[in-house]
Amino acid sequence: MAATPRFRNDADAASDADPHLTAESASTDRKHPVDETLPPLKMFTSGLQHVAAMYAGVVAPPMIVGPAVGLTAKETAFLMGASLFTAGIATLLQTLGFWRIGARLPFVNGVSFAGVTPMVAIGKDRGHDGIAVIFGAIIVASLLGFLLAPYFCKLVRFFPPVVTGTVITLIGVSLLPVAFNWSQGGNAKAADYGSTTNITMAAVTLVIVLALRKLLRGFLQQIAILLGLIVGTLIAIPVDITDFGAIKDADLIGFPTPFHFGAPQFEIAAIVSMSIVMLVCMTESTADMLALGRIVGRPADERTIEGGLRADTLGSAISPLFNGFMCSAFAQNIGLVAMTKVRSRFVVAAGGGILILLGLVPVAASVIALVPLPVLGGAGIVLFGSVAASGIQTLATAALEKGENALIVAAAVGIGLIPIAAPEFYHAFPKDLLVVLDSGISTGCVVAIVLNLAFNHLGRKPDQEASEREQSPAAAEPVAAH
């Protein structure tokens, strides 16, 4: 398909998503902001900002799984480095892509937290054998997901604004408790968890980020989050909540040796469990791509989602080779894109390159780890709140006054908030179901889709169905061939 008409429509869509977009973005080369490259320094610093926003989320799963299966502290640190390395590979697959693999959006991939509970159950106290079984299950589940991607992406026609707005809002609201936990210190068992020092540092960082966004202009305003994290970390040093131990203990060079813990092992129960996790990840990634597509002004169609899901699943299949876990979308980085208005996928690709470097140079990774969690939590409130705000903006276009759309939003948001407002609500349910039920994003997404089908599709006449399809993201102007 010719690129020229596509860029005109994309520019118009981008202007709707960002009222501050200038004519410069629709310059004579008609290049969409998603495909723009920035000067090297801007590319690096903006990419580093994405890494800083996602770092804690990447290393948290191996920090939990490693000790649970019986690994030593050094082996757990190896898992953390491997997770950074494989997150970088998965991010490059998404942003740069090849063939029909990759969403080619500023889409960050990392270790999925959805798999932590089942992975702990699979490998608990089994040492290297437990890790090998986990890796075997991830490989099979990921390959199945790769085969399923062309069919799963067709669900996009059932994601009109009433559904996508609900899910985007839930993504942001579901992430806010993570920021609140970081603000308190991150470890509920620590003596200083929730201390006035930790919460004050989070508040100071939040104020710094807001002030920088208000006072700075141009590129410096775009990296306000990164600058806020640096200033917050410097302030935290005399407050004595910055841990330099990670730098002292880190190796200078380290490569995630393939199958470091032994060849993968395959157990049916583990494969079934991780396949369920994969379906959850694919659902969340679809919602995230729809959200990101609206934010950057390039609506995600079926082909984009198919490519994104293939990148997710291929990255997850490759990950165990280098001792990493299942990879999926990182919604917190969507908030960063929404806030900074930097929509270039090459910026996120630069972040993927930095992640690979951090995985190969543990001492460099430890520098990022210097950022105290309370400081990260203060910035996270802005990041995650930006995602929720984008969802509310989408809902404003969803014609809530028509039919039962308001009821769909009310039920989906209400059910999606259950795991957040009442974490023990499903405690009596089978553990296998908790993989889905404990994710407010997944349950809210399923409820929104089902209710939208029931109220807006079933019993509709063909002309009404056509009208619905015109309003769905899938009906957006198709983008040029990748």
Description:
Helices cover 67% and strands 1% of the residues. With 482 residues, it is mainly alpha-helical. Helix 11 (268-296) crosses helix 12 and helix 14 (345-360) crosses helix 15.
Describe what is shown at a glance:
Helix content is 67%, strand content 1%.
Major sheet: arrangement of strands: 1-2
Structural class comes to: mainly alpha
Number of helices: 21
How would you characterize the largest beta sheet? Answer: 2 strands, antiparallel
Helix content: 55-70%
Q: What is the molecular shape?
A: globular
Distance from first to last alpha carbon:
10 Å
Topology as a string of helices (H) and strands (E): HHHEHHHHHHHHHEHHHHHHHHH
Relative strand content: under 5%
Mean pLDDT: 79
The counted number of beta strands is 2
List keywords for this structure.
mainly alpha; 1% strand; globular; disordered N terminus
Topology, element by element:
Blueprint: H1 3-17, H2 40-69, H3 73-95, E1 109-111, H4 116-123, H5 127-152, H6 161-184, H7 196-215, H8 218-222, H9 224-239, H10 245-249, H11 268-296, H12 302-318, E2 327-329, H13 331-340, H14 345-360, H15 362-368, H16 373-395, H17 405-416, H18 418-421, H19 431-437, H20 440-456, H21 462-471
Antiparallel strand pairs: 1-2
Helix pairs in contact: 2-3, 2-4, 2-14, 3-12, 3-14, 5-11, 5-12, 6-11, 6-16, 6-17, 6-20, 7-9, 7-16, 11-12, 11-13, 13-16, 14-15, 17-20
